[in-house]
Write a structure and sequence with these properties.
By secondary structure, this protein is mostly helical. 69% of the residues lie in helices and 3% in strands. InterPro entries: Mito/Outer_Membr_Metalloprot, Peptidase_M48, TPR-like_helical_dom_sf.
Length: 442
């Protein structure tokens, strides 16, 4: 189905907020990290009356500090914020605050008829709008278009102070209901204290989209003091440490990771971080040694198996990588990122038919994985299906906000696909979004 109502609303947002320097948001997809986020978010979403199976948490590959929502089904958190926070409770406070914006109807009221983006093109446009909204340049452009900076700020990501106060109250209630210490909420706000005095260009995006004031911080401290309680959750602390450890291992220099891995919260996390650091050095022998040691401590962990598969694949041990990914996929059969990894390994092992089966299974469960779309296009090409290869390529470019390239490949796919078929309709989604973006540039 062509999401015309979605596209028309998102087009307005894209026109208003798309900044020249940043056309889209890049997602960092990792099954281990996303599973950890689910573990932290589940009790909060339940407390908020939201479905933990319907609201997805995705990581934005950005070192700045921010978290935001653009619809009622996605919470986006910058990798930089996860790495900066010091406790699971602080990250859960961020999740609770963003969940409050969804549960309190702030997004619904702001965007009118906008609903969740169910296609790569739809999410691509939402993320392009979000990227521009986090930019001072995009906000200035919106102010010119609307005639007033205040009205521009109220359109998209920049929540009003009233909404922030409402979200603060609700988030503390959710945290208490979930048995989580709400002091993490104060930790988060203290992190940004004083930034409102900085020029807009020097502020972290979180402050621009979540206005902070002394009165609001004072009120939040009062709320937390009036709602004591909660206890340390070993499961949440473990997954927070693991997420943060894995992110820093991939983001920081290997030498930085190796100096600090020994102070990790548990031995398996330390070994995982060392494996990543050695893999990036690169030293495949030491990387495999350490990931095997981590698996000896957690032998049924599909996410550690996935990491081992990645190390083997990127070290060009293709057949071994296939075996490890298959084992991981068998243990987590509904995890599309692991199934997609199996497909990638099968492609590298020159087994395109088997790869296509795994990749299509993963695609059916995850429409927002640019790497998976790249692998799908290769698998379709190798199995003699050029139209579907073009479609996967078009959707990948759309997800990344590269609309000119998306339109080119969507046109190729549309011309070759049976008119009215599901793939043809998906090509129309991309063409529609690309044409709207082209009009903006004219």
């Amino acid at each position: 189905m062509i999401l015309s109502r979605l596209m028309s609303v998102v087009l307005v947002l894209t026109l208003l907020f798309a900044a020249p320097a940043r056309a889209s948001v890049s997602l960092l997809r990792d099954a281990d990290i996303e599973y950890g986020l689910k573990q932290l978010a589940a009790p909060i979403l339940t407390a908020a009356g939201l479905s933990s199976s319907q609201v997805r948490l995705l990581v934005v590959n950005d070192s700045s500090l921010n978290a935001f929502v653009v619809d009622t089904r996605h919470i986006f958190i910058h990798s930089g914020l996860i790495m900066k926070l010091d406790s699971a409770a602080a990250l859960q406070a961020v999740i609770a605050h963003e969940a409050a914006h969804i549960a309190n109807g702030h997004i619904t009221r702001r965007l009118g008829n906008l609903r969740t983006a169910r296609t790569a093109a739809g999410l691509g446009m939402l993320l392009a709008a979000a990227a521009g909204a986090a930019s001072s340049d995009g906000r200035a452009a919106a102010a010119i278009a609307l005639g007033s900076q205040n009205s521009a700020k109220r359109i998209f990501l920049a929540h009003t102070r009233a909404e922030e106060s409402s979200a603060d109250i609700a988030s503390v209630r959710y945290l208490k209901r979930a048995g989580i210490d709400p002091k993490g909420a104060v930790e988060v706000q203290e992190l940004f204290r004083g930034q409102e005095a900085l020029s807009t260009s020097r502020q972290d995006p979180y402050v621009r989209s979540h206005p902070l004031s002394r009165d609001r911080l004072r009120a939040l401290k009062g709320l937390v003091a009036a709602n004591p309680g909660g206890k340390r959750d070993p499961n949440a602390e473990y997954w927070f440490a693991r997420m943060r450890g894995k992110l820093t291992a991939f983001k920081r220099a290997p030498s930085w990771t190796l100096r600090r891995a020994g102070s990790s919260a548990s031995k398996d996390i330390a070994l995982m971080r060392q494996a990543v650091a050695h893999h990036r050095s690169p030293n495949a022998k030491k990387a495999i040694r350490d990931i095997n040691a981590a698996l000896a401590l957690r032998p049924n962990d599909p996410y550690l198996m996935e990491l081992k598969g990645q190390i083997l694949l990127e070290s060009r041990n293709f057949d071994q990588a296939v075996a490890v990914y298959r084992n991981a996929a068998n243990r987590a059969p509904r995890e599309p990122l692991i199934t997609g990894g199996l497909g990638r390994a099968l492609l590298a092992a020159n087994r395109p038919k088997e790869a296509l089966k795994a990749l299509e299974t993963a695609r059916g469960r995850d429409f927002f994985n640019a790497g998976l779309l790249r692998d799908l296009s290769v698998a379709y090409a190798k199995t003699g299906q050029p139209a579907l290869a073009s479609l996967a390529t078009a959707e990948r470019f759309a997800l990344r906000g590269r609309w000119k390239d998306a339109e080119l490949h969507a046109k190729r796919a549309s011309d070759r696909l049976p008119r009215g078929s599901s793939p043809w309709q998906r090509a129309q989604d991309v063409l529609h979004a690309a044409k709207q973006s082209q009009r903006k540039r004219r």
